[in-house]
Amino acid sequence: MVSVSLKNVTKRFGNVAAIEGVNLEINDKEFLSILGPSGGGKTTLLRLIAGLEVPTEGEVYFDGKLVNGVPPRDRNISLVFQNYALFPHLTAFHNIAFPLTVRKTPKPDIDRRVKEVAELLGIQHILDRKPKELSGGEQQRVALGRAIVRQPDVFLMDEPLSSVDASMRIAMRTELKKLQKTLGTTLVYVTHDQTEAMTMADKIAVLRNGKLVQIDAPQAIYDSPKDSWVASFIGNPPMNLIPATILSNGQAELSGVRPPITIKALTKKDGLSSGRKVHVGIRPEDIEVKAEQVNGATCKGEVYLLESLGDSMIVDIKVGNSIIRAREKVDFRAQIGAQVFMRFNERRLTLFDLDTGTAIS
Description:
With 361 residues, the protein is of the alpha+beta class. It has helices spanning 42-50, 92-101, 107-121, 136-149, 166-183, 194-200, 218-223, 228-233, and strands at 4-13, 16-26, 31-35, 57-62, 65-66, 77-80, 154-158, 186-191, 203-208, 211-216, 240-246, 251-254, 261-262, 277-282, 287-290, 298-308, 313-319, 322-328, 339-344, 350-353, 359-360.
């Protein structure tokens, strides 16, 4: 297996930079998810790793070896696409065997390796069927089998679960993660679905407008987003970003609301001079909603909307010019328009500069 390194990689199409100045280290046997919104450059970055695109600037390395001029067939990679790209006239067996067939692998070896992969994926019973006779989940497994059978150094997957129904997607996330650990293969997985990235990956590379915004372990990105855009992109519901003005003595005025909220943690931040404009970031699960005033960092608002998620209740609370969302137990009860008090978990607060969006340490 191999590690993959990208050094200052840029890819331009005409005057448009699809990827710009990306530096990325993918360790051997690591599961890396490239996460970002549609049009952010995720697929282009994957294609650069695969060799389907050549960098306009920068270098791509496999195990320290420069591969910019190495074609895809010589990089020992396997690609799994969103549409699976199965041959409709071939059975599942021959679809899986295809990479070995074109390399003129001896037939006994083909039979053995296809059967081994089919057993690993639990699809021994469908090997004689053609794609039109298979369900979406079965087609997905056949596509995975074709990728696995050639024993690649790197798996590259471009939103392979997007065409699968919700229940199958959950099951396949678990299977993919287990499969990657069993095979011990480096895997790069493109998705716009943060749940897939959070639950499957060892590390997440967050991409926006062709630029790498943050790369870290899933929980680290969730707990300590590098900027307000990442904070608002990761999480469902996302982090609350409340406009505020820093006052003296560890106080902040939220959305022009009086009285200001007192947050002891503010006094420990560097460079927070009086009058500085910030976003106060707080996750919905780090807010308690109470009917009466309580001790701690609190502010008052009125219930704007209640949204039941089955296992919890999202409470939208109007505070000045902002809507703050809190996650409460499913049996939470309140009347729309009722006055409530919110207590913030100060240890879970993140401050962002209002102009640049950068997190304030």
